[in-house]
TrEMBL record:
SUPFAM superfamilies documented for this protein: FAD/NAD(P)-binding domain (SSF51905), FAD/NAD-linked reductases, dimerisation (C-terminal) domain (SSF55424), Rhodanese/Cell cycle control phosphatase (SSF52821)
InterPro entries per record: FAD-bd_OxRdtase, FAD/NAD-bd_sf, FAD/NAD-binding_dom, FAD/NAD-linked_Rdtase_dimer_sf, Pyr_nucl-diS_OxRdtase_dimer, Rhodanese-like_dom, Rhodanese-like_dom_sf
Family statement: Belongs to the class-III pyridine nucleotide-disulfide oxidoreductase family.
GO molecular function: oxidoreductase activity
Domain called Rhodanese: residue spans: 462-545
Keywords: FAD, Flavoprotein, Oxidation
One Pfam family this sequence matches: Rhodanese
Full protein name: Pyridine nucleotide-disulfide oxidoreductase
Species, as recorded: Companilactobacillus heilongjiangensis
Top-rank lineage group of the source organism: Bacteria
Length: 545
């Protein structure tokens, strides 16, 4: 009987154990977990802070007893694997409560120890009792208890990644005053700067103070001090500046560590040491598009890597093709989703690319509760290969992102998206889905049918004195506009052609770049040769910083 030992009993670990049992009823499967719980939903942890999940213990999906009864899997909690002897094929396991150490033999070892929240020692006060991170059920209970027991009124969350934002959203709903501190110039590195402005606005609208381009320097009992010297009132601090892969055991066993600091594995998730596999947040993976090594701390990869590793262990063909990084978060009344490469990542990797932003309604306008979907599609130029997408809206923007993620995984092209037949009724979308609309605009760009410039270039245009037309109606213009723009609505421009110069470049924008696009096409047809659409929304301008 094969002896399978698994380190870590959550995302990757529990998946590996369950898969092994499905493939082999006779295997002896032992899963060691140093914490008190196995198989909990890490991703649901923040929702305890708002009370959406009132009972933190309900986040634990399966107890060790259930693992034993239902699957004949030994799930040993409070059991930390402290050493691996790759020659003898044994691990040393410490009972976290008693300190007792025992040895356990394996035929196959799967490492899924996850990652540790980054808590830089250079930050003064980082070890104080009012500083928290969110990684497991113990953490979330401790944070929640501190917030309620100490009448905390002000909380600082450090780091604007998805965990930081989810913590912000859930604590803010309890009426506390939240400050989010982000060292970069925008939150969520998975979306571009222009789209992040919509997220910033959403945070401001919900009463969250957002501080960008600043870091945490010192933590005191009642406030934090930032590297800029700014002081922020906060009686509790949540650190969410990222995670570092837990490679202690892997190093200990002699496994090679990759260039990104994660455990090096091959396409079958074998480490450099025979019969030791590694999966999940602890490993280094390959980006499917750039072919660069990267790390991706998400649940789907962890679970699939675990399944693939066990399949390979049992002789099934496995050839992992890498990751594209699809994700979605819920933030107050917005959903923010992304997949593949951002424009920033394209630039970093030297990919010649273009992007289009469209802002159609989520369903037919006469239906109740329609709302705009902001969708950016990134594609290679001039080839037109689909590289990435970002979507923000009140509706389920994951549909758009999942469709595009599928296309990226299949190395699809813009032309595959233009005519992709998707499910439609007025309840669910517009007849041409936002995905089709974005692809049709992209096709126009690839065919050189008209010129466009990104909304992020507006500041430069204003500074250079460019001629900018605002194609919205006068009441919209009156409510706020680009300072140097001239209001010539789409509904009036045919009567006001004499105001539009022919001897210099003309830039046109509106709320969603659709009216401006129509004006550009009309002017082109009227013989104007230097007219450019400003792609994106007026709402993405940094008016809220
Ligand atoms: P984990 O699930 O963290 O499991 C590792 C386990 O190994 C830990 O319990 C640890 O105690 C144990 N361990 C470590 N060392 C040892 C040792 N030596 N001996 C014994 N046990 C050990 N992903 C998404 O895709 N979508 C989301 O919405 C999402 N939300 C998240 C929200 C939060 C708050 C967090 C923390 C994560 C979220 N994730 C999300 C990420 C996702 O949960 C992880 O990518 C996934 O759980 C990784 O699985 P893993 O097995 O590598 O690590």
């Amino acid at each position: 009987n094969k002896k399978i030992v698994i380190v870590g009993g959550v995302g990757g670990g529990a998946s590996a154990a369950a898969r092994a049992r499905r493939l082999d009823e006779s295997a002896e499967i032992t899963m060691y977990e140093k914490g008190p719980n196995v198989s909990f939903s890490n991703c649901s942890l923040p929702y305890h802070l708002s009370g959406l999940i009132p009972d933190a213990d309900s986040i634990v999906m399966k107890t060790p007893e259930q693992f034993h009864k239902q699957y004949n899997i030994n799930a040993e909690v409070n059991s930390e694997v402290i050493d691996v002897d790759a020659q003898q094929k044994t691990v040393q396991v410490k009972d976290v409560n008693t300190g007792e150490i025992r040895t356990s033999a394996y035929d196959e070892l799967v490492l899924s120890p996850g990652a540790n929240p980054i808590m830089p020692k250079s930050i003064k006060g980082i070890d104080k009792s009012n500083v928290f991170s969110v990684r497991n059920v113990v953490d979330i209970k401790a944070l929640q208890a501190y917030l309620t027991d100490n009448q905390v009124s002000d909380v600082a969350v450090i780091g604007g990644g998805f965990i930081g934002l989810e913590v912000v959203e859930n604590i803010a709903q309890t009426g506390k005053k939240l400050t989010l501190v982000e060292a970069a110039d925008h939150v969520l590195g998975t979306i571009d700067d222009d789209f992040a402005q919509l997220v910033h606005k959403n945070l401001y609208d919900n009463g969250v103070q957002v501080i960008l381009n600043d870091g945490l320097a010192e933590i005191s009992d009642q406030h934090i001090t930032l590297t800029s010297g700014k002081e922020i009132k906060a009686q509790a601090v949540v650190m969410a500046i990222g995670v570092s892969p837990d490679t202690t055991l892997a190093k200990n066993a002699g496994c090679r560590i990759g260039v990104t600091g994660g455990i090096e594995v091959n396409q079958q998730f074998e480490t450099s040491i025979p019969d030791i596999y590694a999966v999940g947040d602890a490993i280094e993976v390959t980006n499917m598009i750039t072919r660069q090594k990267t790390r991706l701390a998400l649940a789907f990869p962890a679970q699939m890597e675990a399944r693939d590793a066990v399949d390979h262990m049992y002789g099934r063909p496995v050839q992992n093709q890498g990751v594209i990084g699809s994700q979605v978060i819920h933030l107050f009344d917005l959903n923010v989703a992304s997949t593949g490469l951002t424009e920033a990542a394209c630039k970093q990797n030297g990919f010649d690319h273009r992007s289009v932003t469209v802002i159609p309604q989520n369903r037919v306008g006469v239906m109740p509760d329609t709302s705009p979907i902001f969708l950016k599609l990134v594609f290679s130029y001039p080839g037109g290969e689909v590289l990435g997408a970002q979507a923000i809206g009140k509706s389920g923007v994951d549909k758009q992102i999942d469709v595009i993620a599928t296309m990226i995984s299949m190395h699809g092209n813009i032309s595959n998206l233009t005519h992709l037949e998707l499910a439609y009724s007025p309840w669910f979308s517009t007849a041409k889905n936002a995905v089709n609309i974005a692809a049709l605009v992209a096709e126009n760009i690839l065919n050189g049918e008209y010129q466009q410039v990104s909304i992020s270039k507006v500041r430069g245009l204003v500074e250079s004195g460019a001629f900018i037309i605002d194609a919205r109606e006068p009441n919209e213009y009156a409510a706020g506009h680009i300072t140097t723009s001239i209001n010539i609505p789409l509904s009036q421009f045919r009567q006001r052609l004499d105001e539009i110069p022919t001897d210099k470049p003309v830039y046109i924008h509106c709320q969603s770049s659709q009216r401006s696009y129509n004006m550009v096409r009309a002017l082109n047809n009227l013989g104007y040769t230097n007219v450019t659409n400003i792609s994106g929304s007026f709402l993405e301008l940094k008016q809220y910083e």
